[in-house]
Amino acid sequence: MPLYELKVEGQKKENRLAKAVETHSKLLVTISVIVIIVSAALTAQILLATKRYQQLFSKLEISTAPQMLVQNEKDYMGTKLYPDFLYRLARLYYENANYDKTKESCLMFLKEFAEHPLKQSVNEILNLVNQDLAFLEQKKDVYVQHFKLTSHPWIQTVKTEDTFTPHPGANPRLKFALEKDSFEIELFDLETPATTRLVIELLTQKEIEKSSAFELSDDFTILSVKSEKEVQFEPEKTYRTLTDNMVVLEVKDGKVLANKFYLVKNSKNFKLQGYQIIGEIPNGINVYREIKSDSKLNSITKL
């Protein structure tokens, strides 16, 4: 083949190669742009979903009444947080002694999410409801002494030997007298009866106040007591949520330690990892919040 024909043929091959490279380059650029657009869209979707999840989770955390959750139920349906929603709703209904709604929420959870990790906790709430209802059925004929106001006020005295009515003041209280003022701790006897009994036995020992001392923190005040023997016992379950002015004991290695009583000032910043809620401070809140490290405890009295 003559030389000029070889040159022409070589030029044609180069042109074809250049066109192929150009075509593939355009294709690669197009694919790259599509990948970037899809990646950006997926990233935006993930960020929006994460933000939405955080918003819904925060609503669960701050809800303190069942009505607050019920009005937002549609936001949770079909999401990963719906099991948490039903569990939280059941807890709030139980805390408000609405047993019918509690059972309804628990049974709906167990029907829809039978394999969920919260199943055991839901079953525990359901068992508590059944126990409470059985107890109320047994005690339905028990009355308490009460005042009845008619056209002429009179006092009706009735059976009192086995009283059960969770009216204000039904739980036992301890009065802590300081040099000038005092405050009271109401113990959750209906929920943690064994803890209540042991705490009362400990704090009503003779001259126990002489071995007590206060330790201060921005978020809590500690009442330390020294007993002849170390007091430890098994924790009891309570479904109360920690709030300001509650009293807790530390739980360590599966045991409740009854040597330091934490009077919680700021529950949001309370960092104790394990604790047992035992009661709350209904009277003298300002008194205990103004306690100083050198404040003296004069006496502890069971009311």
How would you sum up this structure, described in words?
- This protein is α+β, with helices and mostly antiparallel strands and 303 residues long.
- Among the domains are: 63-138, Serine Threonine Protein Phosphatase 5, Tetratricopeptide repeat; 173-302, Cyclophilin-like (Cyclophilin), CATH 2.40.100.10.
- 44% of the residues lie in helices and 18% in strands.
- It has 8 helices and 11 strands.
- The strands form 2 sheets. Strands 3, 4, 5, 6, 7, 8, 9, 10 and 11 form a 9-stranded antiparallel β-sheet that branches. Strands 1-2 form a two-stranded antiparallel ribbon.
- Strand 8 (246-252) and strand 9 form a beta hairpin.
- The longest helix is centred in the first third of the chain and has 60 residues, at 3-62.
- The radius of gyration is 33 Å and the shape is elongated.
- The termini are far apart.
- The model is unreliable at 141-169 (pLDDT under 50).
Key attributes of the depicted protein:
single chain; 303 residues; alpha+beta; Serine Threonine Protein Phosphatase 5, Tetratricopeptide repeat; Cyclophilin; nine-stranded antiparallel beta sheet; 44% helix
Quickly describe the structure:
This protein is α+β, with helices and mostly antiparallel strands and 303 residues long. It is 44% helix and 18% strand. The strands form 2 sheets. Strands 3, 4, 5, 6, 7, 8, 9, 10 and 11 form a 9-stranded antiparallel sheet that branches. Strands 1-2 form a two-stranded antiparallel sheet.
